[in-house]
From TrEMBL:
Gene3D superfamilies per record: P-loop containing nucleotide triphosphate hydrolases
InterPro entries associated with the record: AAA+_ATPase (IPR003593), ABC_transporter-like_ATP-bd (IPR003439), ABC_transporter-like_CS (IPR017871), ABC_transporter_ATP-bind (IPR050166), P-loop_NTPase (IPR027417)
Pfam family, one: ABC_tran
GO terms assigned for molecular function: ATP binding; hydrolase activity
Database matches in SMART domains: AAA
Higher taxonomy: Bacteria, Pseudomonadati, Pseudomonadota, Betaproteobacteria, Burkholderiales
Protein name: Aliphatic sulfonates import ATP-binding protein SsuB
Keywords, ordered alphabetically: ATP-binding, Cell inner membrane, Cell membrane, Hydrolase, Membrane, Nucleotide-binding, Transport
Top-level taxon: Bacteria
Presence of the UniProt keyword Electron transport in the record: no
């Protein structure tokens, strides 16, 4: 089981400079995530969900407030904080095994330990037999499983997931949601999932953080006190899903606000090489 830490976010605010004017993106975000917890974050486009993940992972450091992991301020990127994006970002000229092993480039592990660690994570994500396959030989869902294995192979304290299943068909998405829950239980790792899919958020999360936009703020945190495996058609599941959905209604101020500029893309320039492989 991986070591996991406590993440404390306190009065976090973030703004971008757009044509010389300040554009607030996040405002006064305060949230504590316990070791081993699975937290889902939902909200409409432009509410700063992805910006929040970039700040936690350390891709940006220009913000107000505090982001602490085990009491220490998050500064820059670290293999303690893995991330998986909507696009799998695999290197097309490398095999499954090679794509995963690149995350261990600066790990200090011996060649034998690296091999065993990679193999155990291939097994974890259910890709035995595909070690030597190239990305073009994999389905979208299989490629995302490789990306998850690559993010986990360094044994991070926290895994951040930014719409990891957003580009997949409904059946594949539902299957991978089950697989992600299995991996979370097996690894005992803290996971933070950003998604537009409320049902996905309730299915996976122990808490659902509902954000509202312009600037992004926490509107409500909804506990999900349901045992696993969760049945999507169960009345208790539907009640929690509907509770979250109701938070998206009746927000005239947000509706009247001008469109928010697209969030800045994730740029891996100047990010340590091993971390680039990890993401």
């Amino acid at each position: 089981m991986a070591h996991t830490g406590t993440l404390d976010i306190s009065h976090l605010s973030k703004q971008y400079d757009v044509k010389g004017a300040a554009l607030p993106v996040l405002e006064d975000i305060t949230l504590t995530i316990q070791p081993g917890e699975f937290v889902s974050v939902v909200g409409t486009s432009g509410c700063g969900k992805s910006t929040l993940l970039r700040l936690i992972v350390g891709l940006e450091d220009d913000y107000r407030g505090e982001i602490l992991l085990d009491g220490k301020r998050v500064v820059g990127t670290s293999l303690q904080r893995g991330i998986v994006f909507q696009e799998h970002r695999l290197f097309p000229w490398l095999t499954v095994e090679q794509n995963i092993s690149l995350a261990l480039l600066n790990s200090g592990l011996s060649e034998g330990d690296q091999f065993r660690t990679v193999q155990s994570h291939i097994d974890l994500v259910g890709l035995n037999g595909f070690e030597h396959a190239y990305p073009y030989q994999l389905s979208g869902g299989m490629s995302q499983r490789v990306a998850i294995a690559r993010a986990l192979v360094t044994r991070p304290d926290i895994l951040l997931l930014d719409e990891p299943f957003g580009a997949l068909d409904a059946l594949t998405r539902a299957y991978l949601q089950q697989e992600l829950h299995r991996i979370w239980e097996a690894e005992g790792i803290t996971m933070i999932l950003v998604t537009h899919d409320v049902e996905e958020a309730v299915y996976l999360g122990e808490r659902v953080v509902v954000m509202e936009p312009r600037p992004g703020r926490i509107r409500r945190i909804v506990p999900v006190d349901l045992a696993h495996p969760r049945e999507r058609s169960a009345p208790a599941f539907s009640r929690i899903r509907d509770t979250v959905l109701r938070e998206f209604g009746d927000k005239p101020a947000a509706a009247a606000a001008p469109p928010l500029a697209p969030e800045a893309p994730v740029v891996t320039d100047h990010v340590p090489l091993a971390f680039q492989f990890a993401i």
